[in-house]
Sequence to fold (101 residues):
Amino acid sequence: MAAERFIMHIHKHRIEEAKSMIDPVDLEKLPPEYWERIANAQFPEDPKWGISYTAGTLLFSTIAFWLLIQDENGWQRDSSVNYSAVGNSIIIRSTDFPSAQ
Fold:
């Protein structure tokens, strides 16, 4: 499953492998600061992520998800980027970054 592979790359800090799964046009939506934050994030052995848009998952055979990142308050949903696994690739459904507008 693409979402699971992507999450494992992120959790093991294999950032380039994770980025290679994202559609090149979508990859341009994320600034270098985002990837620096991901590279410096603490992740557990047991990957954590959240599924969003369950109806879309069932209707369109996609899995929409967010990363969960640990901070001083515990596990928080990183809602700055909403990903979708479609087939073997990852697309970016939405992002808070201005470059994506």
